[in-house]
Amino acid sequence: RCGASSDVHNFFDEDWDEDELLSLEEDLLNDLAMEAELRAEEDARLYQELEEQQRREDEALYEQHMLDGVPCPLCGFGRLEHRESELCCSSCIEMRVPLMDRLLTMDDIFETLGFAECAHRQAGCHSRPVFCIREEGMGLGSRLFLCCEDCGWSECTI
Fold this sequence. Notes:
The chain is an alpha+beta fold. Helices cover about 50% and strands about 20% of the residues.
């Protein structure tokens, strides 16, 4: 026989008095209570971390919402602005699209982007499309497209 097996066998063969059993039970209950307390403290700490992260994200979203202008369709953080004959983002360098119509207002641009998303949705696809920059041939330069990998949608928006 293995030594560990005989130790277990001896443990159960011993005669235990009631005080020893009560003491053992109390030790086990204390250990379980301590484990539960540690687990509860860890859960509370994780919950506080998640709550703090959510607060920071909500704060950033609120600050974004309070900004004037049209959000950049590429990065979502900056705002679109006219720079000479280009439509650019105040934050990212990827958003640089030549404007054919210099009289195009930010409201017109906002509507155009919204119409493109609605057209995609009305075509029957419920996936979320993304805006991307593509180079057009024949000297037209960069263009802003709305694309969907799931359905293959590709529409030049600006």
